[in-house]
Write a structure and sequence with these properties.
alpha+beta, 5-stranded mixed sheet, 3 helices, 2 domains, single chain, globular, 4-stranded mixed sheet, 2,3-Dihydroxybiphenyl 1,2-Dioxygenase, domain 1
Length: 131
């Protein structure tokens, strides 16, 4: 048993795909036409870090309730954790791509960490190995 997907509500599919693939280096796993439960067109968009068994389903907000959740899915808390082998190189690449960081990187017992915001404003931890 494993967790295959988690959903991230986004305002725009293409902007989110660009952020996750071009900035974070994720792979576009699927981008296929689909329909909502009531028959309206939508897209099924999956992204994942290279080699990962768990991915993210990018779901375009549908209606006012979902639109309010864009960028605040975890009520202001860090809700996603991206662990990388080379923290410094990833941090530098993200800095050059103008990713918003909420503070400077710091060292913790579990590794090097810094909080960043994705293209919608959700908070993530960028985690590297302990120094």
């Amino acid at each position: 048993m494993h967790l295959s997907l988690v959903t991230l509500i986004v305002a725009d599919y293409d902007r989110a795909i660009a952020f996750f693939t071009d900035v974070l280096g994720f792979e576009l796993v699927a981008d296929t036409p689909s329909t909502t439960n009531d028959g309206r067109p939508k897209r099924w968009v999956e992204i994942a870090p290279p080699g990962a068994s768990t991915g993210i389903l990018l779901a375009k907000a549908d209606g006012e309730h979902q639109e309010r959740a864009v960028g605040d899915q975890m009520a202001g808390r860090v809700g996603f954790f991206l662990r990388v082998d080379d923290f410094n190189a990833t941090f530098q690449r993200m800095t050059e791509a103008n990713v918003e960081f909420t503070a400077e990187p710091r060292d913790e017992a579990y590794g090097r960490v810094v909080v960043f915001r994705d293209c919608e404003g959700n908070k993530w931890d960028l985690l590297g190995p302990p120094p």
